[in-house]
Structure formats: structure tokens, C-alpha cells
Design brief:
Length: 190
């Protein structure tokens, strides 16, 4: 297959805009893969603000960063992403990009999931801090009951952005079985 899968495509969307020295957000730290990826993009002078509500996710992310010697580039917060407005580094700087992997922690407790209302609140907060042409990348996993509810809420919300303020696009495979994840990207215009 020559087409990029959703995760490589999401990373391409981030690589296109993130430069060394930028501040970015991983709104769902999970097992730390995106946090580490973002830490490599922002370089020694940038910062990643990474959060997750679950202690296991924060610990896994901290371990991954430590193994890669990238701890100093990242602020880890055990909070829900809707609480970003309380993080001083978030409040005091422009955000170049953010990534969300919606759903539940891989190999974690599937009863703990992201929710539409908190995800939408986090998107609003990040969008307010986003630089012109900055991006919010959402990888939406909807193959579970709460995921379907969250998907509908997030899609309704992202479709409501006025085109004068943001470009909103979707990347998905339409002929795959079992509710494959897809990407929604919001790029700020002004």
C-alpha cells in the first residue's frame, strides 16, 4: 500500500508545521509515542506539553522519554486535556500544533475513554492559543460505544468552524472493516 495509514499521515501533518523552538501539545499522552515524536520535532529549544488523565500513561510516557534522553523537552501533567488552561506553560505561550489520539489507552482499562465534551473543551482552549497556520490533529478511534458518541460530537463541533477562521479536513479509508480510525485536522487561518 502506497497510501499512508492514519498514524503516519497524522505525523506528516505535524511535521509540516512544527519547527525547532516551537511549543506543542500532546493532549492524550497514552504510551508516549506522540510525545516523543513531538519532542524530536521541537528540538532542544522547544517544549512539549503532554497530558493524560491516567497515571499509567504518564509513567509510560516518562519512561519512553527517559530512554530517549528527551525528558527536558517535555512537561508531563496528569490531568484531563480539558484542564490545559490551568498549565502555566500553556497559558503563557503560542501553540504551534496539538495532537489527540481519542479513545482509550492501548492495553489499558477500556472503560476509561476520552469523552466528546472534554475533548471539545480542550480543542477550544488549544485553538485560542494556536498560532496562525497552526494545526490540531485528531486521530479518532470510534470502534467502541463511547467512541461513537465522541466521534459524532467532535465531528459536529469541527464542522461548525467558520471557513474564514479555519480549514478543517478529514482523512480516512472508506472501504475498511471494523470502524477504522480516521484523522481530522484543524488549521487556523487567523
Amino acid at each position: 500500500m502506497k497510501l499512508k495509514g492514519v498514524l503516519p499521515f497524522a505525523r506528516t501533518l505535524l511535521q509540516e508545521v512544527v519547527q525547532p523552538g516551537d511549543t506543542v501539545v500532546d493532549a492524550t499522552a497514552g504510551n508516549g509515542h506522540d510525545t516523543l515524536f513531538l519532542a524530536t520535532l521541537v528540538g532542544d529549544t522547544g517544549m512539549v506539553i503532554s497530558c493524560d488523565i491516567q497515571a499509567d500513561a504518564i509513567q509510560a510516557t516518562a519512561e519512553r522519554l527517559s530512554q530517549a534522553n528527551m525528558v527536558e523537552r517535555v512537561e508531563l501533567h496528569q490531568i484531563g486535556h480539558e484542564q490545559l488552561r490551568h498549565v502555566s506553560a500553556f497559558k503563557s505561550t503560542a501553540i504551534k500544533a496539538a495532537v489527540f489520539n481519542l479513545g482509550y489507552l492501548p492495553k489499558g482499562d477500556k472503560r476509561i475513554t476520552t469523552k466528546g465534551d472534554t475533548t471539545i473543551e480542550a480543542i477550544k482552549q488549544i485553538y485560542c492559543q494556536l498560532t496562525n497556520e497552526g494545526r490540531i490533529v485528531l486521530v479518532i478511534y470510534h470502534g467502541h460505544p463511547e467512541g461513537k458518541v465522541e466521534k459524532d460530537a467532535v465531528l459536529d463541533f469541527t464542522r461548525s468552524f467558520p471557513q474564514e477562521e479555519a480549514h478543517v479536513a478529514m482523512y480516512q479509508f472508506v472501504n475498511q472493516r471494523n470502524n477504522p480510525p480516521f484523522v481530522v485536522v484543524i488549521e487556523k487561518r487567523k
